[in-house]
Amino acid sequence: GILDDYIATGTVLPGGLRVVGSSASLLQVAGRLKVHDAIVAPRALPWETLPELILVSATQANGLRVHLSAGFYDLLTAGVRFGERNHVPLLTLRRARLSSKERAIKAGLDLTLASILVVLLAPAVAVMAAWQWRDGGGLTIDRVKVLGRKGAFGLMRFRSSAPFHSDFLCKVPGLLNVLRGEVSLVGPRPISVEEARSPSDLPPSTLQPGLTGPWRQAVSPEEQATLDLYYMRSYSGWLDIAVLSERGSDRLRPQAKSGRHVVRASVKIARSAASE
Predict the structure, then answer these.
(1) pTM value > 0.70
(2) pLDDT tens across 49-74, in order?
(3) Over the range 217-252, which residues count as b (16 or more CB within 10 Å of their CB) and which as e?
(4) How far is Cα 18 from Cα 10, in angstroms, rounded to an integer?
(5) Which are the contacts of 3, defined by CB distance < 8 A and separation ≥ 6?
(6) Which of 67-81, 148-162, 217-231, 261-275 has the lowest mean pLDDT?
């Protein structure tokens, strides 16, 4: 259930969630319903309620684990360093970047998996080339200018995957970008040069863009940016493998798309905060 300061207790909301009290009754409701975890959405609370709720949660929770749903700038401040200057308590922001060890692991994973995929997909590309050559054309590669960590580059893709009609096969040339170190298999959303010149341009990433990533679960650039930042803050080699496994499962079993997500709980929290 949920706590709400404006909807009457007992009201059933879409999706089957029931209002079980107000925000001020958090500890009482948690004890009565034997709740172990509570998620607080800061943007859904009146500004005067949030400080009191956080103070109570931090000092009187008695075993209740309280989580804050994180938006883009909340994730940006994750991992802050505590300090003080002139007797003023400060939180110093740390850059959202990978360590040298994490970069080495990511680069090794990219090179290994991209090489394997190039070999496995070569027969399909050969069929595409023969088919399109027979029709009087040939495999045509388009290059979209996108921003990378070291500047702009051309992200490659086939113009057509006939006779397969597969968007996945159209993206096979992107594996060459991976082998050249311009893009990663998993990473933040690639931002085109044209998009970067627009007023709504998002803050640049300290990571190479990815052919896929958690950002594919969202549509709006704002939500995708939040998922990208979550990815950077939570990076591990296993996270890349989990994302690739999920994408592969979606390709092989399209019906799985409706009920499964990579990094399930945390990504859902990030998306909900971004959409508010």
Answers:
(1) no
(2) 888 887 877 787 678 888 888 766 66
(3) bbeebebbbbbbbbbbbebeeebbebbbebbeebee
(4) 6
(5) 19, 20, 21, 22, 23, 25, 26, 29
(6) 261-275
From the list 41, 38, 91, 37, the residue with the least C-alpha distance to 71 is 41
How far apart, in whole angstroms, are the C-alpha atoms of residue 37 and residue 264? 16
Q: If you search the block for the tokens 């706590």, which residue do you land on? A: 3
Cα–Cα distance measured from residue 221 to residue 191, given in angstroms and rounded to the nearest whole number: 10
Q: What is the 8-class DSSP label of residue 164?
A: S
| Virtual torsion, Cα 219, 220, 222, 224, nearest 10 deg | 20
264-275 vs 221-233: helix axis angle to the nearest 10? Answer: 140
Give the tokens for residue 166. 């597969």
Contacts 24+ apart (CB under 8 A), 21-27: 23/49, 23/53, 24/49, 24/52, 24/53, 26/53, 26/56, 26/57, 26/64, 27/56, 27/60, 27/61, 27/62, 27/64
Query: Taking the CB of residue 175, how many other CB atoms lie within 10 A of it?
Result: 21
Identify residue 151 by its one-letter amino acid code.
Answer: G
Token duo for residue 256: 């799985």
Q: Read off the tokens for 29.
A: 């409701």
150 contact partners, CB below 8 Å, separation of at least 6: none
